[in-house]
Amino acid sequence: MRNTVAFAMNSEPSKQLLIIAHAPSENTRLLRDAAYRGACHPDLEFVDCVVKPPLKAGPEDVLACDAILLGTPENLGYMSGALKDFFDRSYYPVLDKKQGLPCALYIRAGHDGTGTQRAVETIVSGLRWRWVQAPLILRGQWQPEFADQVEQLSMTMAFSMETGIV
């Protein structure tokens, strides 16, 4: 029924969720893939998902999206250098154009992740993006549940986009 109604009304425009995830290890690749799965839930009809590593993403990707999910490992108490590089190249080109952009973050932290969280929050605050939920910090030894948590985060974000909550 929904497809018929949407088609009759010239269909709703798709919204784009951009996932920028640094995935240098098998576990972080599992998290990135889980984020993609969540954003591609079969019940989602009007959300497209683009996944890029930070070194391949740039301001044009941010300008084209409707929301962004960031993923990074904790590196020496900080975000990955690749994610920092993405922010360095994208900050000023998007600063005045994407204020209020809905965003979320997951951190794969071998320790506590608070330094990484603080660093990303500082940049996001400067960009004036809007957190849709508190950062998800996946602390300690690897647990398979981490992938489920990231998938849930991404799915919630995508459904929130589709329904107009964010």
UniProtKB/TrEMBL annotation:
<dbReference type="GO" id="GO:0016491">
    <property type="term" value="F:oxidoreductase activity"/>
</dbReference>
<feature type="domain" description="NADPH-dependent FMN reductase-like">
    <location>
        <begin position="37"/>
        <end position="141"/>
    </location>
</feature>
<dbReference type="InterPro" id="IPR005025">
    <property type="entry name" value="FMN_Rdtase-like_dom"/>
</dbReference>
<dbReference type="Pfam" id="PF03358">
    <property type="entry name" value="FMN_red"/>
</dbReference>
<protein>
    <recommendedName>
        <fullName>NADPH-dependent FMN reductase-like domain-containing protein</fullName>
    </recommendedName>
</protein>
<dbReference type="InterPro" id="IPR029039">
    <property type="entry name" value="Flavoprotein-like_sf"/>
</dbReference>
